[in-house]
Write a structure and sequence with these properties.
Elements lengths: L1 E3 L7 H15 L4 E4 L6 H5 L3 E4 L4 H10 L5 E5 L1 H9 L1 H4 L2 E6 L9 H13 L2 E4 L2 H4 L8 E2 L17 E5 L8 H11 L7 E5 L5 H10 L5 E5 L4 H6 L3 E4 L8 H8 L4 E4 L16 E2 L4 H12 L2 H18 L2 H29 L1
Parallel strand pairs: 1-2, 1-4, 2-3, 4-5, 5-6, 6-7, 8-9, 8-11, 9-10, 11-12, 12-13
Helix pairs in contact: 1-14, 3-4, 4-6, 8-12, 11-13
Length: about 350
């Protein structure tokens, strides 16, 4: 199996590729990945997954050509889809694409021009959420919510830290979090807000926090150790109004972290399915503040929500369940004997 993501980043899509590739390799598949951050991707994939560079189209084409033949070629984002199609005579794999964004294919002029060609040749198209699927140029062949690894319970009822774990980009609406923090009054009650992430709005948001004279707010920048952040969090705040799915929220649920989230986008398919989860209208800082304050005042509710979000993750959002479903989708391409062979190998 070959996964392709044409980038030099390690954001949500690359994190998804690395976890799925590693788990699929654990089940006995020979897996290769092209693309992602050269400094991060090989370590995340581990020794059982081959990694090749694919930061740009020429590099990705060369790496795919060098990777040899594969049963399946799974592309992530438009550039990767185009690269996989352009090299299909070399890799010979059945062509699969996962749509990670709630938009029509192609954010550039070249991408838009190539979109019809890509659509004609894909053999399976998946969407990471129903929210994404509803906004594609045509419905996907299946909706498959991302999964994350099952974690130990990292949450502590004694923690007085609200964690905001997201890229500092306009679509994440981090400014609403700062306004909510000021209105919540939690700083006066010993809570802190830790903003973890980097992006184009980093300086702007720091300036806003200073202008508002916010107390108890810490900007941590990019942090590699997500588990350490979750372990120190008493709650998570998720303000993105139209998240395609929300990987950080799913990771928090796996760790038993109560989440206060905007009721929009993929959040409606993850944390919003948990009874009692505090939600607020997207962009509503007062609603977010009220949710934070209510949770801070009610430790038994936080305890109950910690158990509930872990149970919801185990039932619908685990990495094991996700990969099993993904392999079943692959089987629809006519690879059922191949799938059964891999499972037998894994069981042995």
């Amino acid at each position: 199996m070959l996964h392709v993501v044409v980038s030099r980043n390690f954001a949500g899509t690359e994190r998804y590729v690395s976890t799925v590739a590693r788990e699929t390799a654990r089940r006995g598949w020979r897996v290769s990945v092209v693309g992602g951050d050269p400094a991060r991707m090989p370590d995340e994939l581990g020794p059982d997954v081959a990694w090749l560079p694919g930061g740009g189209m020429p590099e990705a084409l060369r790496s795919i050509a060098r990777s040899g033949r594969h049963d399946l070629c799974h592309a992530h984002m438009t550039m990767a889809e185009a690269a996989a199609l352009a090299t299909r005579r070399r890799h010979r794999g059945r062509l699969v694409a996962t749509r990670h964004f709630a938009a029509h294919r192609g954010s550039t002029a070249v991408g838009k021009l190539s979109a019809p060609w890509i659509a004609r040749h894909l053999q399976l198209q998946l969407a990471i959420s129903s929210f994404v699927d509803a906004r594609l140029e045509r419905p996907a062949d299946g909706v498959l919510l991302n999964g994350t690894a099952t974690r130990s319970v990292l949450w502590s009822a004694a923690s007085r830290r609200v964690l905001l774990l997201q890229r500092l980009e306009p679509e994440k609406d981090t400014a609403t979090a700062l306004h909510a923090w000021r209105s919540s009054g939690l700083a006066a009650r010993g809570w802190t807000l830790r903003v973890v992430g980097s992006g184009s709005q980093s300086a702007q948001l720091r300036a806003l926090a200073a202008q508002m004279c916010l107390v108890g707010v810490e900007f941590a920048g990019y942090v590699r150790d997500v588990d350490a952040e979750l372990r120190a969090a008493g709650m998570m705040l998720a303000t993105a109004p139209a998240e395609p799915l929300g990987l950080s929220v799913i990771e928090a649920m796996a760790a038993g972290i109560p989440v206060v989230a905007a009721a929009g986008g993929g959040h409606l398919e993850t944390i919003a399915t948990v009874a009692g989860a505090p939600l607020f209208r997207p962009g509503d800082a007062s609603g977010a503040a009220a949710g934070l304050a209510a949770m801070a005042d009610d430790e038994p509710r936080r305890q109950a929500l910690s158990h509930a979000v872990r149970a919801a993750h185990a039932q619908r959002l685990s990495l094991d369940g996700h990969v099993s479903s993904l392999l079943e989708h692959y089987a629809l391409l006519g690879s059922r004997p191949l799938l059964d062979e891999r499972r037998s190998s894994s069981s042995a």
